[in-house]
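In practice, a research group might receive sequence data for several interacting partners and want a quick structural hypothesis before committing to experiments. The following worked case mirrors that situation: the sequences arrive first, and a predicted assembly follows.
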Amino acid sequence: MSKVVGIDRTRGRPRKDPAEYEERRELLIRVGVELLTEKGFVSTGLDEVVKKAGVPKGSFYAYFESKEAFGLVLIDSYAQYFNSKLDKCYLNSSRSPLERISDFMTEARQNLARFDFLRGCLVGNLGQEMAALPGSFRQKIVDVFCGWQAKTESCLREAQKLGEISTDINCEKKAEVFWIGWEGAILRANLERRAGPLDAYTTDFLSSLGP
Amino acid sequence: MSKVVGIDRTRGRPRKDPAEYEERRELLIRVGVELLTEKGFVSTGLDEVVKKAGVPKGSFYAYFESKEAFGLVLIDSYAQYFNSKLDKCYLNSSRSPLERISDFMTEARQNLARFDFLRGCLVGNLGQEMAALPGSFRQKIVDVFCGWQAKTESCLREAQKLGEISTDINCEKKAEVFWIGWEGAILRANLERRAGPLDAYTTDFLSSLGP
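A structural hypothesis for the assembly, expressed as tokens:
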């Protein structure tokens, strides 16, 4: 990033270059998502965000109204990023529906391993912090989970239609339980700094599908 | 509690009455466990602990060496309390082993409902905060989970011996997966402020046991 514009104009408006404005805003979001994924909302200070992004401290409020508003944007950004990851797996027509479900878990495991199990799921982490978060976060986080569940549910339905999983399974309930357990598995993997809990959960979940 | 001794002697030793010392220490632990269960470690300030316990602020360090040392004592205290709750269910000879497993979930659900799903599992919460916690917490939290898992495993083995659950089940793995998923269910119940996720998980877990 150019250092030329890095002059600290306390709470001043940033330079009126729309491309640069957008670029910095995107950078703040990227850094925010990273920090939130590692440390949660309460422990993430705006000082750390602007420092890591190389953005003058005072100009943060030119991009976001408040830490709360910033947090809501971060949830949206993460949900969008994650939805496209889910779609990549769940809509992969070169794999059977059951394989797609398994693929997602394998890929997520790789992503978690890449960061040495130091990073979790931003949405799961926020859910855990709920008592200390602005109330506006609750519905947004619930909505994100519902969206992921709906994607899993439709993939399970396809698997069921093709006889890959048992006809006894209630796909809606199973998708809900999948995300409940998967978030629990990420939590344990972060705690233990190893893939073991994800593997144990994956094996158990797949074997619970029948056929 | 008596107000007479409530004089703030900054970092002074508390009055050398062993019973009173012990009583205050216990009170600090009780308040600490409550706050930790609701808010986690990072968000819980020592100021809030001493204020809620009615203990002079400066005397905290006469009871505990540091916030870290306090946290470790809180984990032990919670684990001990929770182990006795588990034993009460899992060793209840008036119920079959499978009923005991179900009883634990029912009872835990009631406890969570009593606090309007505002409180979670202290150990689960700490696991989620791990990135921001002293390293000494990690092994302690893992050990607590292993202890709980061992209790669940032996109850599952008894159920298996009596033909209540399928002989195909690996009781050790199932106990690990139970705690992974159960912590995930508490997380979601706290997020949604309702029992739904616990019920969905309970139904799915029990149906996964066969026979």
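Before designing any experiment, note the following. The CA atoms of residues 166 and 210 of chain B lie 5 Å apart. Residues 136-161 of chain B form the longest helix (26 residues).
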